[in-house]
Inverse folding.
């Protein structure tokens, strides 16, 4: 089962979404997007845990 996330589900005014075969691969893509587009979000362990709750199985 692949993994999917969208910024819209996180309450962001952002149309970005992504999917990847595994959560680990998806987190790499998410971190790149957050660093590029959501510089206000610090990738603390707490925030990473919150992001992971938004990941869906597709
Ligand atoms: Zn975004």
């Amino acid at each position: 089962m692949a993994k999917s996330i969208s910024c819209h589900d996180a309450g962001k005014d952002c149309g970005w979404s992504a999917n990847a075969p595994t959560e680990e691969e998806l987190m790499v893509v998410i971190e790149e997007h957050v660093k590029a587009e959501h510089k206000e979000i610090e990738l603390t362990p707490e925030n990473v845990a919150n992001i992971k709750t938004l990941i869906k199985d597709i």
